[in-house]
């Protein structure tokens, strides 16, 4: 059975806008992000049979206009589709993206998929594991058209996993930052049959 996944990045958050972040889970959307979220129902390629949402606030806020339109569609919160937390959260409290840039660069320069920055952080290997777990949940679902509200880095690794299912975590990490980026509220349509014959279309 072929399934289609339309996976959408959240709208512009205060963190994306360069403002300080207090808690990586509870960063809200900006007014621009809320306006972007209102456009998503018109972008969808079909009516979803299941809507999956990251537990992070910015993803839940982005999903709300779509939930309002498709109020009869099943909705689930999946922790697996949350953003990649690779810098220790406590260290990031009250910082901006610009202030975190040296830590981000140091993390990726290691090219170690098993490195963990500190308490509350996760390794790249764990991110890949979450993406694999997400695909298993999709495979076990009876729904054929699934809409997911998630985050850029998770979407990138999920797409890479669909396209190159047999690669190692080392291979994925080495090319990760060269993969195509997504804008806020940009989506990707992935077609999956779980026979490793997969493809995706990038959409706006």
Automatic annotation (TrEMBL):
UniProt cross-references to Pfam families, sorted A to Z: His_Phos_1
GO function terms (MF aspect): phosphatase activity
This protein's name: Broad specificity phosphatase PhoE
Organism field: Selenomonas ruminantium
């Amino acid at each position: 059975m072929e399934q289609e996944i339309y996976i959408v990045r959240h709208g512009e958050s205060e963190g994306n806008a360069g403002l300080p972040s207090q808690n990586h889970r509870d960063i809200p959307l900006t007014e621009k992000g809320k306006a972007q979220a209102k456009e998503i129902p018109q972008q969808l390629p079909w009516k979803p049979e299941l809507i999956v949402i990251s537990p992070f606030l910015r993803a839940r806020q982005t999903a709300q206009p779509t939930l309002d339109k498709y109020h009869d569609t099943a909705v689930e919160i999946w922790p697996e589709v949350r953003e990649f937390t690779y810098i220790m959260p406590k260290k990031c409290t009250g910082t901006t993206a610009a202030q975190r840039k040296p830590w981000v660069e140091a993390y990726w320069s290691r090219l170690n998929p098993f490195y963990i920055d500190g308490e509350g952080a996760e390794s790249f290997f764990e991110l890949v594991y979450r993406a694999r777990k997400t695909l298993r949940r999709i495979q076990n679902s009876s729904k054929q058209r699934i809409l997911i509200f998630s985050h850029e880095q998770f979407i990138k690794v999920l797409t890479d996993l669909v396209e190159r299912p047999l690669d190692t975590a080392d291979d994925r990490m080495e090319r990760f930052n060269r993969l195509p980026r997504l804008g806020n509220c940009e989506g990707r349509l992935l077609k999956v049959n779980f026979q490793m014959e997969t493809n995706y279309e990038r959409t706006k």
